[in-house]
Amino acid sequence: MLALMTLGCQHSPIHFTEAQAPNIPSFDVPENHTSASNTSTDLSQLLADTQQAQSKAIKPVAYQLPHTITLTKQFHAHQWLSSEVNDSGLNRLYLIGISAQQPITHPDILVEAFKQKLEEMANTTAYSPQMASCLSSIKIRASLHSVGMTIECSATDQQLQQQLWQFWEKGALSDINIATVIRNLKLNKHIGAFTGSEIDTTFRQQLLGQQHPYNLNVRNQSAINELDNTTLQTLHNKIRQQLQWHLFIPSPITSATHGVAQSSLNSTSDSQLNSPLNSQLNNLSSSTSTSSANKQNAVITSSDIFVPTWLATTQPNLTEVQPNIITNSTGSATKQSTQTILIINAKDTVQTQARVGFVLAKPDLVNTTNHNQNSTDCKTIAALLGRSYSGRLFYDLRETRGLTYGIYGRCVDAPLSQYLYFYGSTSLENSGAFLKGIIDHTQLLKDQAAKQTEINAVITYLMGKQQLASDHKYGKESRYINNLLLGRTASFEQLQHETLNSLTPKAITTMANHVFEGNPVIVLRGDADKIIPDLNEKLPHWQVITISP
User: Fold this and answer.
1) What is the mean pLDDT of residues 265-275?
2) CA separation for the pair 235, 237 (Å, rounded)
3) What pLDDT was estimated at residue 371?
4) What is the mean pLDDT of the chain?
5) pLDDT (tens digit, 9 = 90+) per residue, 395-406?
6) Which of these, 484, 449, 475, 458, lies nearest to 376 by C-alpha position?
7) Structure confidence by residue, pLDDT tens digits, 397-430
8) Which regions are flagged for Low complexity bias (predicted)?
9) How much of the chain, in percent, has pLDDT values that exceed 90?
10) Which residue from 72, 95, 134, 181 has the least number of CB within 10 angstroms?
């Protein structure tokens, strides 16, 4: 009886998946293809015509600039000159502070404190129904170079502006519950073990270096443990003085203003295109401020903007936003020279999370030509391999071999870092085959030229993605702010389009050899005891090391 019970408790042995050579999708028109219907339509000819149309140069998406007013050296207001009609009856404002020259200190702490303030305001302050709905619509988000807030309701622009600015007034965070803020921040760390942020943090530390500013200023447990009212207010004031402010207010709804905006933009000279974006915006602002649209009061003026007293009287030593250069002083990691797999040991987990990343070469310290070229290379390769359902990795590792629910690629193009990485999860028994599949595809792209039909599909994807972003105010705002942070001009946008339209198999091979020059930085999270033997079998020349998160 005891023997039977013992046998019943035993688990079946794990049978790990065999590795295979990479499979790549075909974008060629099938030969001798016949239509399944009885119509006279020649589907093969239709596909051929589509392929020929794709191979032609795609017209670049017009890069729109907003109408801009400079209130102070530190504060700019923007409005998209558009013919879109707002039928919702709601006004939407977007206030964002950016820091291009250095990362923001502990933005995660500040955002959690803002959320606590917002909750306490909703619970303790008496608001009219209209203003209460405004309060509930506020969304707060941050990155290592920006802190943004949106608000959308039926109140006036002036009322909305004041609601957003109250978070930045001196002493705004003096009365919040610090204990709750600390508890939520610590809870986020535990939640991150399941959502993927734990492996993302460890991966970024291994990729960029422990002392990189991006790794010192987010999820810093020492700063969280030492947090109190005094340190929080000091942090709040420091960030407030560090940021350059940009306020996006609702667009005018008359078609006349749209025409004025387009004519002003189209008349921009070549010399203006090569100047920093701030200069272009000032020129555009001057040209549109005297337009007939302005006379109709459809375009914002300085009288429409609320300027906080502390911002109006502060004159920090700020200069025009300039391109940032990645240097060794930022703590950036160099190319990975060893073949190493790092594992965060998560005992008894049934899946393995994977991150595979490549740091791009450090750009020239004199100009940003290489920096911008790195950006184009990084985004193109990320799309070719990891653009969700259409990428090579998804086609092979999910659709063909069933090793994962999803595998994706992303290019991080930030002021102080440029890197490409692939991410996804797989079951325990697929760990080795999944990881080897990713590595094999990066090598294959270096060794074997991609076909022009596949490259055309990548071009269409990248252009379409940009078109979708440009057609929506959220996308336009994000694109505009990102260019400000990276110090990029409108001429860069045009050059990037020209580069994409001229992509050839040889160019893709050159890009791949550049991006995948060194060995990847690999971090896994899973049950180390169970998957290490499989990794040693599938990747015998790689050293496997267990680390702590």
Assistant:
1) 35
2) 6
3) 63
4) 80
5) 999 999 999 999
6) 458
7) 999 999 999 999 999 988 888 999 999 999 999 9
8) 269-292
9) 48
10) 72
Strand partners, 547: 344
H or E element in which residue 496 lies: helix 490-501
CA 353 from chain centre, in angstroms, equals 20
Structure tokens at 26: 């075909």
pTM score, two decimals? 0.81
Helix (H) / strand (E) element for 523: namely strand 521-526
Buried b (16+ CB within 10 A) or exposed e, 465-487: ebeeeeeebeebbebbbbbbbbb
Nearest of 108, 155, 110 to residue 136 by alpha carbon? 155
pLDDT value of position 62: 67
Closest CA to 488 of 372, 399, 406: 372
Cβ–Cβ under 8 Å, residues 358 and 423: no
In SS3 terms, 9-42 reads as: HCCCCCCCCCCCCCCCCCCCCCCCCCCCCCCCCC
Question: Phi and psi for 162 in degrees, rounded to 5?
Answer: -65, -35
- By the 10 Å C-beta count (0-12 exposed, 13-18 middle, 19+ buried), 400 is classed as middle
Q: Give the model's pLDDT for residue 268.
A: 35
Which of 222, 99, 86, 244 lies closest to 157, judged by CA?
86
Strand partners, 79: 67
Mean pLDDT lowest for which of 88-92, 283-287, 374-378, 513-517? 283-287
How many angstroms separate the CA atoms of 148 and 94, rounded?
Answer: 7
Hey, what domains does the chain have and what are their CATH numbers? 67-312 (3.30.830.10), 328-547 (3.30.830.10)
Q: 248, 66 in Cβ contact below 8 A?
A: yes
Tokens of 397: 């590792």
**Inter-axis angle of helices 452-470 and 490-501, to 10 degrees?**
150
- Across the strands, what pairs with 151? 93
Q: Which residues pair with 510 in a beta bridge?
A: none
Name the 3-class secondary structure at 462.
helix
Tell me the pLDDT band of 237, cut-offs 50, 70 and 90: very high
> What would the pLDDT profile of 93-111 be if each residue is shown by its tens digit?
999 999 988 899 999 999 9
Residue with tokens 């025409």: 259
Q: Which residues contact 468 (CB under 8 A, 6 or more apart)?
A: 475
Burial class (CB in 10 A: 0-12, 13-18, 19+), 357: buried
- Cα dihedral sign, 284-289-290-296: positive
Residue 521, both tokens: 């930085």
